[in-house]
Amino acid sequence: MSDGNKGENIVLIGFMGCGKTSVTKELAKRLNLNYIDMDEKIEKAEGKTVSEIFKDHGEAYFRDLETTFLSKLENQKSKIISTGGGIILRDENIEMVKKIGIVVFLQADVAHILKNIKDDHKRPLLQDEEDIEKKITTMLELREPLYLRTANVIIQTSGKPIKNIVDEILEIL
User: Fold this and answer.
1) Per residue in 71-125, pLDDT tens?
2) Contact 39/17 with Cβ under 8 angstroms?
3) b/e 117-133 (16+ beta carbons within 10 angstroms → b)
4) Is 140 helix (H, G, I), strand (E, B) or coil?
5) How many other CB atoms sit within 10 Å of the CB of residue 147?
6) Where do the domains of the chain lie, and which CATH numbers do they carry?
């Protein structure tokens, strides 16, 4: 990272299954920084998984938790932050994410996402879906412009090992 970025957070955004958690952990290790996984922190605070929060309280409640959590990150420095895939669904979140740090959009295609989440049954928005590929495609069409509007940096992750994705991020920052 250049001297101009000292102390600045790196915030990873992107669709579920694009590699945010894995990239966050590897990036934190390589930069010797602490990381924050928002979903993990919200689960810990609520004592429930994201899926259970969705089931018990609904998506709007979870989105409120995300917004509240984001507002607490404004004073953080030198952290790698992994957001939930839907963080960009609220304009206020987009503005906060941009203030918190350098925003890196991990962009993945539908095939890559499907491969990464096919055996993961903890994705609340894909539960009980007959056609997961169609659902992902529809959600991506809605979210992609929001990710692009939010990002300072776009990294294509499809088919790439985590190490290579992290290398690309470090080259750019």
Assistant:
1) 999 889 999 999 999 999 999 999 999 999 999 999 999 999 988 887 666 666 5
2) no
3) beeeeebbebeeeeebe
4) helix
5) 22
6) 3-172 (3.40.50.300)
